[in-house]
Structures are given as structure tokens and as C-alpha cells.
Amino acid sequence: MGKPDTADLEGRIIAHLGTRVRIKTAQGVVEVKPPRKSAGWAVGDIAVIRGGMGVEIRDRKNELNRVGGNGEKQTLAANVDLVVAVTACGEAFKLGLIDRFCVTAFRMGAGFSIALNKMDVEGADRQLMEARAYETLGVPVYPVSARTGEGMEKLAESLSGKICALLGHSGVGKTSILNRLAPGLDRAVGEVYGKSDQGRHTTTMSLMVELPCGGAIIDSPGLRQFNPVDIEPRDVAEFFPGIRDFSGKCKFRDCVHMTEPGCSVRAALADGRLDAQRYASYTRLLESIRTNAAKKGWE
Ligand SMILES: Nc1nc2c(ncn2[C@@H]2O[C@H](COP(=O)(O)OP(=O)(O)OP(=O)(O)O)[C@@H](O)[C@H]2O)c(=O)[nH]1
Ligand SMILES: [Mg+2]
Ligand SMILES: [Zn+2]
User: Any bridge partners for residue 145, and if so which?
Assistant: First the structure.
């Protein structure tokens, strides 16, 4: 005899289909509607199903948010253990974007690493050097090629047992990496046009896929832009790779390391201990956080 259908069923949201979500439960995969269109349910959430309807989600450990197109908070995923920034050889190394992912990951209490894909293309070694600079800042870097399989074992090991979100521009190979890690999945991957950096935005829906090595990967659509939310300018330095080490000795406790006197970050910049590129990326992020806040009237 089956359970009465009034019993609550619980499961993890593994895909977001727009108006419905796909939930993996102990009794198989089901699709339900969130109670309201604006409920903000995300891949990674644990949802409760009652009488065939999605009714609520359990408290989240954390949420991966960004400022969405309409200026509102957009939750890309929930309950994430590790954020992996995917970048590719043969396209510009977008350090600003990586820093934004990093700040977001640390701020939400998740781990952060970088996967440098397309190690099979020309000039890859030079780009690997650029990426390796993050290792000295405490961020693990995994050079891989989804095409040849190079480096995939080490990457897989680092993901094992965790819920991992792959983030990056369209065309860097997020889905290709996932297909390598979860053979048999065969998710569609897209061609990149000519020499430009532009991918085709092949992936249009976030999807969580369990890994043979334990854990799961969330593959999401390529991001053109990424602005963190819920972070105050004075907290950015604490999560910013390479800045934090210098920020402890400023004269003012709420120093944002821009124009304040007695700033130990700018002292480090002046005598060359802090890389100028790092600092420039930091100030750009600070500016965009302030701009967003001003737009929303937060300040
Ligand atoms: N040379 C080379 N090409 C790759 C590699 N990985 C992926 N590609 C190619 O890069 C293109 C984009 O790959 P996708 O996996 O669709 O990229 P994505 O990041 O998922 O893109 P979106 O879904 O649009 O965000 C495809 O043509 C892939 O075949 C790699 O390691 N080396
Ligand atoms: Mg994709
Ligand atoms: Zn300072």
C-alpha cells in the first residue's frame, strides 16, 4: 500500500524550469509549482511537497545571489559548499569577475576555487601563469581541458562530496566540464563564434547533477555580469583576495581603503607589497556596490 498522498515529501530542487521546479525525492523525481511565482526557490533548496504541491523550502545554509537585470536580488543557487569560477584559455582573463565571484563565495561561507579550462589551446601556459597568481592568495587553481580530459581527476577530487556551483561567462566550457565529470549526461554544449569571447548562451536553465565521486555540480547559464548583493562597502576588503592581509592596521576601523588617512592597504600599495591590479579591481567592485546601493536607495 502506498503512503497517503497527504504525507509531506521532501527533496532537493535539481532544476528550475521557469514556472516549475524539478525535485529529487526518495520516491523519484517530481515537478511542482512553487506556491507563488515570486517565491524565489532556487536549485539546491530543500523543498517540501504536500498533496502534490510545492509548499515551502527549508531554511537555507546560504544563498548565491547577484544583482539581477531588474536591479533586484536574484538567487542563482542555495546551499552551496563551493563556488568554482570557470575561465578559459584563449579568452581574456577577467580578473574582476573572478574577484567578484570570490567575494561572494567567501561572504556566503562557501569555498572558492578557479578552474582554468581549455588548457589544450595555444597560449595556455601564459594564461595559467596569470591564474596561478591566485594561488598565492589562497585560492586553488585547477588547469583542465574538458576536451582532452587533462587535469579532470584533480578537479573531481576537489569537488567530491560537496555541492558546487560552476560560474563563468558563456562559452568557457562549464557544461563541457560537467559532461566530463558525469559521463552519460551529454548535456548540450555550444559553439563559440569565431575569435570573439562570446559564447552562445547554450545553457538556459540551472541544473544540479550528482557526481559519481559523490557531491553534485550546479551548471548554470553563462553570466555576462556579476554584482554581489547584501555586502557593505566596508566588508568587501575582508573577503577580497589579496586585500584582507593588509587591512587590519588601518587607523579607522570602518576604513574602506580609498581616501582615509592612516590606511594600511594604501600604504601596502604605495610600497609595492600590494599589487596595483589587485587594488584597482577592489576599487572597481567597491564602486559598483555603491552604485547599486545608490540606485536602490540603500544608502
Ligand atoms: N578547445 C577546447 N574547447 C572546449 C573545451 N571545453 C569546452 N570547449 C568548447 O567551448 C564551447 C563552449 O562550451 P560549453 O560547455 O557549452 O560552455 P558553457 O560555459 O557551458 O557555455 P554557456 O552554457 O553558454 O554558459 C564548445 O564549443 C566546447 O566544445 C576545452 O577544454 N578545449
Ligand atoms: Mg553551459
Ligand atoms: Zn584602510
Answer: none
Ligand 1 atom nearest the C-alpha of 145 is: 31
Model confidence pLDDT, tens digit, residues 247-295:
889 999 999 999 999 999 999 999 999 999 999 999 999 999 988 777 7
| Residues 173 and 118 sit within 8 Å (Cβ to Cβ) | yes
Domains (range + CATH), the chain: 9-57 (2.40.50.140), 63-219 (3.40.50.300), 233-296 (1.10.40.50)
- pTM, two decimals, is 0.91
Q: Nearest residue CA, atom 23 of ligand 1?
A: 203
Ligand 1 closest atom vs CA 178: 15
Torsion from C-alpha of 167, 242, 116, 102, nearest 10 degrees: -10
Closest CA to 180 of 251, 247, 115: 115
Ligand nearest to the CA of 286: 3
Ligand 2 centroid, distance to 88 Cα (angstroms): 13
Q: What is the pLDDT of residues 162-181, one digit of tens each?
A: 999 999 998 999 999 999 99
Report CA(62)–ligand 3 centroid distance (Å).
29
Using CB distances shorter than 6 Å, the residues near ligand 1 are 117-118, 120-121, 145-147, 168, 170-176, 189-192, 199-203, 221-222
Q: Which ligand is nearest to the CA of 170?
A: 1
